[in-house]
Amino acid sequence: MKFKKVSVIILAASVALPVTAFHSSPVYSLSNANAYLPVPVSNAGFEDSAAYPIPGWRVIPNLPAEGLEISVTSSNFAEGQNSVYIADNNPTKSLELSSGAIPVQAGETYRLTAQVKVESKSIRGYLRFKNSSGAIIGTPPTQLIELKNGTGWQDMTIEGLAPAGTVSAEVAFYMGAAGTGTAAYVDAVKLEQKAPEGAPLTLPYEEQSVLVDANVAYALSQSAFYGTLPDGTVEQYVATTGSPVSFHVVDPVTGALKFSENISTSSEVIWGMTQGSDGNVYFATSGVLYRYLVQEKRVESLGSNPSNPAVFDLKASADGKIFGSTYSSTNQGRVFEYDIASGQFRDLGVMKAGQQYVRGIGVTDQYIYAGIGTTAHVMRYDRETEEITEIQIPDVSGTSTTISEIDIYGGKLFVYNGSKLYVIDEESGEYIRTIEFQTKISPPSPHNGNLIYYKLKGDLFSYDMQSDIVAQVEGIPSLPEDTAIKTHAWITPNKGTFAGKTVLSGMAAFGESFLYDPLSNTYEEHAADLPATPTQINALETDGKYLHMGGYQRGMSVYDLEQGKMVYSNKQFHQPEGIGFLNDAAYYGTYSSARMYRLDMSKPLDYREMEEGNPGLAADLGEEQDRPFVITSGEGKLFVGTFPGYGQLGGALTIMEETPAAYGGFPDVTYETYRNVVPDQSVFGLAYHNGKIYGGTTLNGGLGADLTADEAQMFVFDLAARQVTQTFVPEVEGLRGKARQIGGLSIGPDGLLWGIMDGSVDNTKYDAILFAMNPDTLEVVKSKVVTETPFNTSKFRPYYLRWSEDGLLYTTIGRKLFAVDPEDLRTKQMLPGTVNLMTLGPDGSIYYTDNAKLYKIPVKIDKVTLQADTAELLPGSRTNITTQVLLQNGQNAVLEGAQITYTSSSPDVVQVNEDGEVEALAPGTASITAQITLDGRMITSEPLMITVQKDGNWVSQDILNQIEDFKASGDLHHSLAQTLSNKISQGIHHQKAGRTTQALKMVEDYLDHLQKNSGKSKISAEAFEKLTADGTELKELWSNSGF
């Protein structure tokens, strides 16, 4: 497979294109204002009494308590004459005001609203659902109201589905124990039940989801470290990504696993790891600092840092401190300090005002050097005076990029920026040079203190800090080429080839480890024995036969829907963001650099990262694009919508096309990239129809980018003309603010263009609006505000619209799973909580993900039927049974992983094996039933009747058997029995030879002998009657050529 970029075209406001910007007008809109029915809340406006305790409400803890206050006041109110004032000035205690139990019904949706006025800091609201025992069994996303969002009365809105078992709800307002000096007024509390929208939407699905035995797993590390124990033993410490992440200790020579522990409360990745001055290993995830005690071989939590939850780098100082660099989009990039001796944290503050990342740090006895992004800066923090100054890097400082790490060796700063390593004189701050490298440098060599080492692609290089000379290390095998080195160290192994020698060690992202002796120029490689861990599923699509899954950080898997098992897994695959299909091949859009990989499951599998393969690289989109989330196809082409890289604005539309290769080889792939189809916005949704590509955008660019646009748009791209012809914002009823993002575009069975719009309400939520428009006139035909999208959900991942054969639409609107009737827009939320990824199987089953797990919502079973190639058999013949499970949506179930047990009602007539093969044994009738276990459900089929007919072979053999039986019982004299047996045996011989006339003559002789002996002593009446009847039947069968 060859790929070629045909053209790259930048579409911006200055380009002369026939673009018409307008707001489309709706033809009509279905009801957008969902009806809500009031649910009584005792003393909801705090008007009943000003006394304490407050009627209808309880306070936790009981008051009075030092620094805590809850009181009814008339000094501030949103309505009526009173509100409740809540203040927490206690540094160790939390404070909560909660309602009594409010009767509600399971399966219904409820909305809590309140008016909140924050006087200081913030307050959080809760809506809790409880069972009959009073235990909390469900909590919709909470809402935090902060002072910085406004000084007046603000709306608090929380909505959620009451899960099964709910009997009551509780409303609560809370201030945490960690803070102090928080104060707010609350008024006008309302609880409402969402009213049914006409007739309830009836769905053909089971209520319970089923866990599918499929995942994406790998052992990927984003942080590692080598350490030496007090006895001189060297250990390799590795954190692997996943859900949860895991911490491991590995033998650095053999790769053998020595210790492993899951960090259950963690996020999906650990970025920072270091060894403290106490010899123990420190790492952080989800804001929590952990310590691995090397002597006790156990992990302990040290608590949450005071800066930000996202920790990217950890460095230790010789005086017993651990420093961490952090990220926050709202709290800015900060550095924290942990004192090993006292166990105390300290927030050292923002390193560069207005910047979100302190991506990496370097530490000396005097300074902390902070790498800033997404506008690059290197800041120096004086540990004694706390003064912060900037160190300038020519042509880098102030540009849109990120400084990811800083090392300090030999009086020089080594500043990491992607594939560039900037060397700066630490004392003077003067720039020395730029080195092209890959991810990590080593500490100085103990054999030559001027040399550091680093990897570039598959080669090892050295840099002489004194002479400023870069040199490639010759004469050693290639290092792991396609993965980044996560750590370097100089170690002295106590065993193996390099026992007693001080050598350079290194580990790449998938545990590939090496040892290098610069004195002998010898090198060896081994793999760390790291257990694979299921990771968060990041992409999910199906082509009808296979379910394609992509993992967060790395990895992809393919699940065969018919066989019900995983058929391909690739632990090294780059992070897939989106998956699409063209010409029976799957295309994976991966992060970073927006590379497209092609996979054909009908061909031999052979992964190639940077060349043609299966899967193999089909296109490297480049052009500062990073994340290909949106992929669709039409007119024999693949259309890809992308987000740009870090700190960048301006997504792109790429059009890809295959040309079949000769002799069954890889196809040639050509592509064209059009950036800024809508200036400074990214492509969030795509659909194709009649020669036009319809797109929706989001305001977001790459992570850390400063947004410039204020409203998302749709665009129409003419495929023939290769240009944008129109941009517009659909006008939909119920939109309370401007459109933040428009996506989930799809041409429905009705020919309309459907999509999802998130409209800004405030900084806590969006209106999630479903709309349908005429693709020719761009007029909105119908629309509805379905739900709300929480502000803190993904701003990158698309929404999905899936059309089912049952006539309904299934979607992830609002980051929830909804079913929609496209005729009247009746909706039903199918699951509580967040659902980001969802697709439909060929039988209508819904597959969705929850972190690292894949679930299936099966369609209800209508009935199970059995079909046979023939229902009438002859003795000794066979037939096969086909089992069909008919679902309530009219589809036949895909029997993935089904267990089927067949039973015959008359095993002496027919037998049936585990594969559904039926064998006829004797004339008669039997019913075959199948008991099927599918997705945890057991159901028995309708019976299939099988009739085994008599034939000449069976009757003739039966006559011989009966002659022997009657002879043994004394009912048939020996001499007559011999005569009768001879006649039938001769008849069988003639019939098998095709001499039917002679065979019939033998049967007639047989009947004559019976007739002559009727009533005589040689045969009983019973034997005469039975043998005569069977002989007559045999004569009839052979006369009709029945064998």
UniProtKB/TrEMBL annotation:
Domain of life of the source: Bacteria
Domain spans labelled FIMAH: 958-1035
Domain BIG2: 862-930
Keywords: Signal
Database matches in SUPFAM superfamilies: DPP6 N-terminal domain-like, Galactose-binding domain-like, Invasin/intimin cell-adhesion fragments, Quinoprotein alcohol dehydrogenase-like
Annotated signal sequence range: 1-21
Pfam annotation, one family: Big_2
UniProt-recorded name of the protein: BIG2 domain-containing protein
Lineage: Bacteria, Bacillati, Bacillota, Bacilli, Bacillales
